[in-house]
Amino acid sequence: MAKEHKNLITGLDIGTAKVMAVTCEVQPDGQLRLVGLGTAASKGIKRGVVVDIEATVGSIDQAIKEAEQTAGCNISRVHTGLTGSHIRSLNTSGMVMVKGKEVTVQDVARAVDSAKTVNTAADQRLLLVEPQEFIIDGNLVREPVGMSGKRLQTRAHIVTGAQSAAENVLKCVRRCGLEVDQIMLNPLASGLAVLTDDERELGAVCVDIGAGTTDVSIFFGGAIRHTAVIPIAGELMTSDIAIGLHTTMENAEHTKVEHGVAKQMLAPREVDVDVSGMGEQDLRQISKQALAGVIEPRVVEIFSLVQQVIHESGLEEQMQSAGIVLTGGSASMPGMVDLGEDIFLKPVRVAVPRRAQEMSDMLAHPRVATVMGLLEEARLARMRGFKAAEAGGIKLMFSRIRDFFIGNL
Length: 409
Known about the structure:
The protein has about 400 residues and is of the alpha+beta class. It is about 40% helix and about 30% strand. The protein has helices at about 55-70, 105-115, 165-175, 185-195, 195-200, 235-245, 250-260, 290-315, 335-345, 355-360, 370-390, 395-405; strands at about 10-15, 20-25, 30-40, 45, 50, 75-80, 90-95, 125-135, 140, 150-160, 180-185, 205-210, 215-220, 225-230, 270-275, 285, 325, 350.
């Protein structure tokens, strides 16, 4: 018999290595209570993009059914994410004249409309419009509604992506009998999950190193300023191990997870690791330091590409305070922080989702950052509710702008 739950939300992370579905109940005080969790090996996804619809549908269905069994209820709606190297971002601005004596919600909507007028390639579409700040008659403001002024300007973060990539994600989810409440960008979701308010304000780079992609989001002044997706991540570390040690991908992944160290100098030379060979070959032994010697060059490459993204964003100076925040499944490998600080010359920390620990130890891991970010956005939207809509709350309007472009493909 199905359990009685109210205000349920479900985050669905369709990753390259795993599909994870997490169902929570939004409590009256706004806290989340875990009620269902399901995971499945991901099949049909390559570097964050659907390459086999049938296989992807099977993985999603398996994760959803497991979440339904643990929750004791049916799941019909989900919040899911989108990533891939097709993602592009830019910052734009728009300006309108205020129609009355005070700035209204309608004025803000017109200003954001003017900011989102950008030229995109034929195969790209607008995925996200995120207002960053507003300027009234030359003065920077955070909340413009109700303020007096004649000219309203806005600065906004615009993200575009491949039309086909977004449509294929929606198609896979809907083939499982699910409705999509929102498609959110994975880099934004990860940043929402792990960064503190101070980090977003002072300037921080969230680097989510998954299996197929490394998602980068740069925050400053309380808003997102740059988004990028690098198609190199943990899966290529595994491939390097498989090739270098002449073993299978499955054995290489196990060896990486259990014994991997990102910085060779930190790995003990005297400790050996058993590695299975191909087929029926006997076990071989390799020192942990030699294994780290295979892993480190790939991590250096990933960090160097992240550094290039930061440089191209023009935000290097703003990153001095909070530095680099690593998350994602590959971020938990020993040595990542030390190697990161060597390359970035800035503070580096590994982060778990901020709300995860109070919900369940199972969610207190960097690998669940994306799905927890999806849930956090869903929670915020749920808490804003109809009262905020009736009051014309500007924060709710921002959410609606985002939903319109990436939730209704």
